[in-house]
Amino acid sequence: MEKILVVEDDQFLCDLYKSELEKLGYEVVQAYDGLEALSKISSENPDLMILDLVIPEYSGIEVLKQLKIKGGKFKNPIVVLSNMRDEKIIEEATSLGAVGYVIKSRVTPETIGDEVKKYLPKQK
Questions:
Q1: What percent of the residues of the chain are helix, what percent strand, and what percent coil, each to the nearest 5?
Q2: Which residue among 73, 98, 107, 115 is least packed, with the fewest CB closer than 10 Å?
């Protein structure tokens, strides 16, 4: 079973994503800020991370920078899920290792699984 780390400071939204992803058979770990995200990456070793950019402690961009500084220790896909549409931010996120950038307002909790499947095909 693939493990997904959802990093989202809106607990209600994070719980909705978790519920929908669990229905699809994924194990879901949650983090509500950047420091917690970095800790969970180390302790949980998720197969994919869904990362909001506007989160407390370390922003999503800071999380990506920290992972890059650590020599790319986290080799699994990182998908940014944010409402920030600025091209410079999108370019920065992808240059720091994000494999996907999804505009949050275009995704519902029910369709988050479709986004995950694009970057993490089931290995069954």
A1: 45, 20, 35
A2: 73
